[in-house]
Amino acid sequence: MDAEPKNTGGEAEPWGDITPDAARRLVNAAVHAFAERGYHATTTRDIASRAGMSPAALYIHYKTKEELLYQISKVGHERALEILERARDSGGAPAERLADAVRSFVRWHAEHHMTARVVQYELGALAEEHHAEVIAVRKATDGAVRSIIEDGVAAGDFEVPDVRGTTVAVLSLCIDVARWFNARGRSTPDEVGDLYAGLVLRMVGGSGGQG
């Protein structure tokens, strides 16, 4: 499994606000374990070992393995929402805002592809109340992109007969980057972001000249 690359695009590291250091180390260890083995195949002993701690030390900071997954999922989804809301509220033309949203969203999924795999593909393992909370953030994420597309349709800049379906398609395209991105591959996160921004603009019938 490739190591997750260091941030190169100006975004804050996902776990920078988690304290104390031991709790942050456990989250980082859990991300790598879940991304490599899957949530269900990972044990608390696996996570503690990766963090250089004893299994007993893990429970000082997180009561269960699911609580660790919840922390990862919540922070990751909130970071994604911040990225898209910033693009939505930037004040440019719809095509500019949509290109910015896609470029930034894709770059985050590439730069933090291991984190994003866990955030996007392990939702089913969350407890019911945690799942509901994360789904609410996902709906807000959907709403941010849909709002930009609706603005473009209203302005006559986009030709989109099905705004809801197109929103799902755009988000799915961006999220899938986390599944295949390789830090040692030929394309950088910025290059993939630019490519996808152009693809999405053509998808909605907007100008492909952004980025």
UniProtKB/TrEMBL annotation:
State the UniProt keywords alphabetically.
Answer: DNA-binding
Which residue ranges does the Swiss-Prot or TrEMBL entry mark as DNA-binding? Answer: 43-62
Concerning InterPro entries, the annotation shows: Homeodomain-like_sf, HTH-type_TetR-like_transc_reg, HTH_TetR, KstR2_TetR_C, Tet_transcr_reg_TetR-rel_C_sf
Give the HTH tetR-type domain ranges.
20-80
Q: Please state what the protein is called.
A: AcrR family transcriptional regulator
